[in-house]
Known about the structure:
Blueprint: H1 6-20, E1 33-38, H2 49-67, E2 71-73, H3 83-92, H4 96-111, H5 129-144, E3 148-158, E4 163-165, E5 170-171, E6 174-175, E7 183-192, H6 198-203, H7 213-223, E8 225-239, E9 242-249, E10 260-263, H8 268-275, H9 278-287, H10 294-299, E11 304-311, E12 321-326, E13 337-340, H11 346-355, E14 363-365, E15 384-387, E16 396-398, H12 399-412, E17 417-422, E18 427-428, E19 430-431, E20 441-444, E21 448-451, E22 482-484, E23 491-494, E24 498-499, H13 501-504, H14 508-511, H15 523-529, E25 534-538, H16 544-558, E26 573-576, E27 579-587, E28 593-596, E29 602-604, E30 607-609, E31 615-623, H17 634-641, H18 643-652, E32 660-662, H19 664-682, H20 691-713, H21 717-733, H22 738-752, H23 757-766, E33 790-797, E34 800-808, H24 813-822, H25 824-830, E35 837-841, E36 845-849
Parallel strand pairs: 1-2, 1-25, 10-12, 25-26, 27-32, 33-36
Antiparallel strand pairs: 3-4, 3-7, 5-6, 7-18, 8-9, 8-17, 10-13, 11-12, 14-15, 15-16, 19-24, 20-21, 20-23, 22-23, 27-28, 27-31, 29-30, 30-31, 33-34, 35-36
Helix pairs in contact: 1-23, 2-18, 3-4, 8-9, 17-18, 18-19, 19-21, 19-23, 20-21, 20-22, 21-22, 22-23
The structure holds one RNA strand.
Amino acid sequence: MTRYTPAEIEPKWQEAWDKAETFRARRTEGKPKYYVLEMFPYPSGRIHIGHVRNYTMGDVIARYKKATGHNVLHPMGFDAFGMPAENAAMKSGGHPKTWTYDNIDEMVRQMKPLGFGIDWSRMFATCDPEYYGQQQALFLDFLEAGLVYRKNAVVNWDPVDMTVLANEQVIDGKGWRSGAEVERRELTQWFFKISDMAGELLDALEGLDDWPAKVRLMQENWIGRSRGLQFSWDLTEPTHGFDKIEVYTTRPDTLLGASFLGLSPDHPLTKALETDNPDLAKAVAQMRKGGTTEEALEKAEKLGFDTGLTVKHPLEGQPDIPVWVANFILMDYGTGAIFGSPAHDQRDLDFCRKYGLPVKDTFVALDDPAPVTDTAFIPPKTEKVKWLDHFAGLDVATGQEAVDTTIDWMEARGLGTGVEKFRLRDWGLSRQRYWGCPIPVVHCDACGVVPERKDNLPIRLPDDVSFDVPGNPLDRHPTWRDVDCPKCGKPARRETDTMDTFVDSSWYFARFTAPHAVTPTDMDDAAYWMNVDQYIGGIEHAILHLLYSRFFARGMIRTGHLPESAKEPFDALFTQGMVTHAIYQTTGDDGRPVYHYPEDVELRDGKGFLKDGTEVQIVPSAKMSKSKNNVVDPMDIIETYGADTARWFVLSDSPPERDVEWTASGAEAANKHLARVWRLAAEPSDEAGSPEADEALLRDMHKTIDEVTKGIESFGFNAAIARLYAFTAAIQKSKAGAETRRLATRTLGQLMSPMTPHLAEEVWALTGGEGLLAEADWPKADEAYLVEDTVTLPIQINGKRRSEITVAKDLSKEEVEKLALADDAVVKALAGGQPKKLIVVPGRIVNVVV
RNA sequence: GCCGGUGUGGCGGAAUGGUAGACGCAGGGGAUUCAAAAUCCCCCGAGGCAGCCCCUCGUGCGAGUUCGAGUCUCGCCACCGGCACCA
């Protein structure tokens, strides 16, 4: 008896596909195109089982679309700039470039045996000068189109290492290497004007029907459109050239409850006051400690400083209120100043309680007029509340009505303006780091900021750099930095900031349509291949990467690099879950957990034991992490079971949007199943069969074709696979004749081919298929086999299933009622009485209420 | 803290508001075998009743809508993703 041998089968078919150039993306007439893209990987050096799942899903779609008559584009590349390469260089010497390209080679070497139908001729890495040079060209066009500008923004500053830190390098408010308390410091930085498109990016979400609703909702909340009132408070005594303070509020209706006016520590007035008020300067310095993340700012203890200034209340007869500087007020949002209305905002309330400021209710619940104590009263804006002595004449109204009425009232009196604002901030793209795309501008004393000339692109990163000192090596590079001004030719200084790696990933999908073009894109190719028909990636990119890409597509249209139709570059989006793995741990002598490798643990009856018999604690479904020793290496799996098993397993056990737990026994089972299918093809039985069995198997086959096709089209891979398990068992048990069984087996292989392409080719060849299966047409279900003529209806009594009847499919409702009432269980339940109600849902269910 | 999501047997999970637990794993029993591996067949939510056809409970917790709720609504709890310099 021969055996299923993936180690022989898989390389053989990969070679055949290569030779036939099966997956080369081609533009041909008469066929629709299909562009499937998985989020490209960071070249960490090893592929991860999560990658296998991601790319397998894409490959299933790609191969299926090819079989259904599409010209498919399914490319692969690397998101290759970023911090890990610099960290590696700092840790073990070497160069980020060498590290990165070695990793890419290694990852490609690991990806190839998985048999993905990828057009490798289009591969690139974002750190290729051919790529980032075109990115620089895009930057210059964006600059010219007014989509890029410079302004000050805060960064995490490590005062010991004298360097800017990324958020992940700030741990509990301290620098990761120095341990020094991090400060927020302002720097002049480059920005994309994404806020200009906020309204458009928000409104267009509505058209993204094939995106998950949750992602659209997250983006909607992130962009955060709000309507509020902008107005000013006059200072009782003008100071430092300021006579009033402009505020923006989304709750102008609570104006009577104002008990203080709050300034951001970064507000211009704060900065002016700081110069001659050392106590304020000290307090503000304290407020600037800690990282820049919104989480850190929100969670930080509320700090305030009374400036001693007061402002006049815009409403007549109201007392003046004090001006405070408060750490929880963001300069980036609104005007950087607010009025605090503590009864209806928890942060304001906490602040007022801490500093002894008054708290005044402006409205109360209809059924509970008790004043606010330590919990602010913030009902939904759609709920009616009772207003207390409201200046615009409100009595009982919802929050939304109150806001609108108040804005109208204030506008009518010239006291303020209703304005629309967005939470979305401009996209800061400057990074004070080496391993990124250089920003192609020059700073000249005479000419100011001067864009590089396009013929000087790419501005290449210099290779002779070292990472022994903290900070950006470009900043201290002896020659790279010093250049002649492209405009006047005098000595000038090159911009040493590089671009955020999100820039790299915001247009790579467009570059794949013409990866070798001498301009960022080729408009013909872009027009043909765009948009991405199906984009697949992790939910962690739901906001930033996808929003930035949407912005970039619009920018590229404006600058003539994409056709108008590519405004929303991703037609459909699918967010897949992680692959997890159990953690095996014991407790060490020091009380800390000790993590064990899966291969050192023996599983018996759901418990795990080490070689010496010690029982280990099993933590199921944990995110794979090197430090927890629970990472499974796809290479080991391929070696043990073959690529098809790995591909089959990552799709089989969980719905693709959810996490899947890798288990050795699950992989084993997948492998056994593939071997079973192989045997059906390689060792067919020669039974004579019966016409009835033939008919039954054909019926099952066509139903399977139908269900698997629907499953693949709807990302129901696990359901499709469950069906294929069932069909395999059906063939095994079938008494159908040899010819029918052969057809069924060949079809089974075909239906499995997007998931297990190598095995499928083998089955195809063994069962008399012609040519390469990868080039063959997808099977079609014969409708005639899909219709059933009888249907089994469950009978419920009071909503609980008690019996069932089998009836003709199109039996009338009346007849079904009659049959149901005659059913033994129903007769018994009725005990001679009449049913209170009888519900018949044709083809589904009967419910008798007694 | 804010935004979004998830929660069903021992485990992964299935189920257009209509028979909860498809399919797979683990477990149990059997066939084949000198024996094993491999393969094949059967059973498998909990409890009751003792048996197959019956009853009760059961989809994180608590309410609600409905003839009928895993599915819809509200309130909790736990976990996961994001929070603009991780990618």
